[in-house]
Amino acid sequence: MIPLLLLLLLLSVTPCSAQNAAADEITNLPGVTFNTNFKHYSGYLNGNMQGTWKLHYWLVESQGNAATDPLILWLNGGPGCSSVGGMFEELGPFYPERDGNSLYENVFSWNKVANVLFLESPIGVGFSYDTSNTSNVKTDDDTVAYQNYQALIDFFTNVQPAYANRTFYIAGESYSGIYLPTLARVLVQGINNESFPNKNFQGMAIGNGYMNVKYLTNSLVLWSNYHGLIALEDWEKIKTVCCNNQDVDKCDFSAHLNTTDNMNFNSDGSECGYYVYQTLTDQTPPWPANQDPYNFYQDCYDPLPTTSTSSPMINFIKGHPNIAATNPHGTASILWHDSTDSQRGNPCWSEDAVTIYLNKAEVQAALHINSSWQSTVGQWNDCSDPIYNSYTVIYTDTTPFFQHVINNVKTPNFRILVYNGDVDTICDYLGDSWHIRDLAISLNMTSKPRTSWSFRNQIAGYVQRYTANTSVTVDVLTVKGAGHFVPNDRPGPALQMIANFIGNVANYSTATGIIVTPQGPPTSSSTTTAPSGARAANSSFLLVAISAVLLKKLF
Ligand SMILES: *[C@@H]1O[C@H](CO)[C@@H](O)[C@H](O)[C@H]1NC(C)=O
Ligand SMILES: *[C@@H]1O[C@H](CO)[C@@H](O)[C@H](O)[C@H]1NC(C)=O
Ligand SMILES: *[C@@H]1O[C@H](CO)[C@@H](O)[C@H](O)[C@H]1NC(C)=O
Ligand SMILES: *[C@@H]1O[C@H](CO)[C@@H](O)[C@H](O)[C@H]1NC(C)=O
Ligand SMILES: *[C@@H]1O[C@H](CO)[C@@H](O)[C@H](O)[C@H]1NC(C)=O
Ligand SMILES: *[C@@H]1O[C@H](CO)[C@@H](O)[C@H](O)[C@H]1NC(C)=O
Ligand SMILES: *[C@@H]1O[C@H](CO)[C@@H](O)[C@H](O)[C@H]1NC(C)=O
Ligand SMILES: *[C@@H]1O[C@H](CO)[C@@H](O)[C@H](O)[C@H]1NC(C)=O
Ligand SMILES: *[C@@H]1O[C@H](CO)[C@@H](O)[C@H](O)[C@H]1NC(C)=O
To answer: Which residues cross the membrane (predicted)?
Structure first.
């Protein structure tokens, strides 16, 4: 028990941020080529009690009803990757043109239905930094959960108090499979002991999550075999030397791998380890050239077959988003018949385009980036290698966090969504399904049959609902054809999925209320436009893009 006087003293040293929402509003984001019919804010949240850990946030308000729609916190993984990167490359309203100069509209942005808070976490990522030690990059799962929790307190209490009672969800991807359950547990604790300012915590959505290291390793071996990566005779050998010819679905391949960081693996020197490692090197570092582990079916060209301005792909990129206007011959002119790439390269170059855009002085000025960040850190990166390389993974199995949340949360209709693009090899759907199946068994949850769900009358994936005796539901959902970056790979289905999740619509096939009509050109008061000459194709970005996509990050 803390004596009252000490408690008052502690409270009085807690810095009260002088910031307010108005000061953080972005009024003139450079390069926007469409009408932004929503408000957005960029600034800093305190990630510790001392106020020295500054976490950069970007709040993009809803295009629906900003005053009543829920808030979604979004966290990318890494560890060390930026959520603002995820905003530009996946689920936000602004997608960068390839030259990094202008921004076109993502009509499937999640802010169609929600207010989305992108938090660059932990300190050292993106524009977030430790003002007392800008080289502070050493962190771990508990420290990250603490920072995110503190930042949310500052957000609801001081920086955006209009959101103090708003229904909110926490969501993210990849290594956020650890960030989110650890944060959810402290949120439930803080709400139950009445110290957290907003009690309306309503759910958690985890995309291609790193939630169970052993399961993701074991499932990847099976995934690889059944996606044509292993020779028949090697598979027979693996079954013998790894599984003693027992049930291969229950075989613990991970027991034959060594790891020092719980993210990268090597053979333990045994015969099984040798074979399994050979298999996994198709999806884990060192990857073979020209295989994208984040989407098994995504190809990146290095360099593109042609950089001539008559290339259909270049035409597409230049013309986007007004394909019809700049391609008078219609769809046929944008097809690239000899390409194996269904996304016209976007995932291969978007990271570089974002990096160029966010390092422009005029962009940083519009985002209210602190001059002390500019003079000490000075470079925005999508992912921080120093953070990744010095990160300590504490939790290799997140089951206890799920159990705590499910057993203790008091919000009625609390929901969890575990979704997976089904062609990701970094965090595959099978291992994540096993993880939730075991959780359900441990809590004696009931299960409904797995059914398909659809987007525009096509199968979009499969979903299975588990329900706990506390009435908390956990939906395990696949997104057909998406890789690791679901909102980028399957934007329409991803938006429909999240809209139904936050809307508490159990049927994920429902499209009601989702409007994806493009905005018109910017009104003069809302934005500035890019200089018209700024869109020339620039092939020199591509080499960097190819190497960037092969980083080992759990984005
Ligand atoms: C700053 O952070 C770095 C990396 O985490 C650490 O090695 C160093 O000791 C810190 N410096 C101070 C003055 O705390
Ligand atoms: C939040 O709820 C509290 C308690 O009901 C109320 O005092 C406060 O004015 C509300 N804040 C907002 C921003 O609605
Ligand atoms: C309430 O829970 C939060 C989150 O776990 C914790 O940080 C805080 O110390 C707790 N407060 C009290 C008074 O127990
Ligand atoms: C793997 O780890 C085991 C146990 O620590 C050790 O005996 C073995 O030498 C390691 N193998 C390799 C190839 O590093
Ligand atoms: C901005 O930088 C100044 C030092 O120049 C520092 O005192 C202040 O805390 C910083 N504020 C934020 C929000 O980062
Ligand atoms: C719910 O199930 C859990 C795990 O099976 C059990 O510990 C708990 O007592 C049950 N709670 C209720 C209200 O039935
Ligand atoms: C598990 O759930 C079933 C059905 O809800 C119930 O009949 C049974 O008693 C539960 N078992 C335990 C151990 O809680
Ligand atoms: C789910 O919604 C779709 C689209 O509205 C509808 O066709 C389907 O019948 C619904 N399924 C169920 C089980 O209600
Ligand atoms: C292409 O990008 C490079 C690197 O940013 C730059 O140096 C060069 O001037 C650009 N070329 C054109 C034609 O824009």
So the answer is: none
Model-wide pTM > 0.85: yes
pLDDT tens profile 432-467: 999 999 999 999 999 999 999 999 999 999 999 999
Convert the pLDDT of each residue in 269-305 to its tens digit: 999 999 998 877 655 544 556 788 899 998 876 544 4
Tokens at 165, concatenated: 């009672």
| Choice from 438, 442, 445, 470 to test ligand 6 binding pocket (greatest atom count within 8 A of CB) | 470
> pLDDT, tens digit, for every residue of 69-80?
999 999 999 999
Identify the helix (H) or strand (E) that includes residue 239.
helix 232-243
Task: State the Cα–Cα distance between residues 207 and 266, nearest whole angstrom.
Answer: 26
Of residues 318 and 239, more confidence is placed in: 239
Which of 223, 216, 184 lies closest to 201 in space, CA to CA?
Answer: 184
Tell the burial category of 368 from Cβ atoms under 10 Å away from its Cβ (0-12, 13-18, 19+).
Answer: middle
Active site residue 174: yes
Render pLDDT for 20-44 as a digit per residue (tens, 0 to 9).
789 999 999 999 999 999 999 999 9
- Residue 102, judged by CB atoms within 10 A of its CB (0-12, 13-18, 19+), counts as buried
Protein residue closest via CA to atom 12 of ligand 6: 469
Q: Which of 292, 352, 424, 489 is catalytic?
A: 424
* CA distances in angstroms from 43 to 357, 382, 428, 547, 549, listed in the order given: 18, 18, 35, 31, 28
CA of 164 to the centre of ligand 2 (A): 7
How confident is the prediction for the chain on average, in pLDDT? 86
Cα of 360 from ligand 9 centre, angstroms: 14
SS3 of 448-472: CCCEEEEECCEEEEEEEEEECCCCC
Q: Is the CB of 37 under 6 A from ligand 8?
A: no
Which residues partner with 70 through β-bridges? none
Mutate to test the pocket of ligand 9, among 309, 538, 542 (most ligand atoms within 8 A of CB): 538
Rama region for 400: left / alpha / beta (φ>0; ψ in -120 to 50; rest)? alpha
Query: Per-residue pLDDT for 323 more than 50?
Result: no
Distance 127 CA to ligand 1 centre (A): 18
* Binding site membership of 509 for ligand 8 (Cβ less than 6 Å): yes
Distance 131 CA to ligand 5 centre (A): 7
Cα–Cα distance for residue pair 207/495, rounded to 1 Å: 13
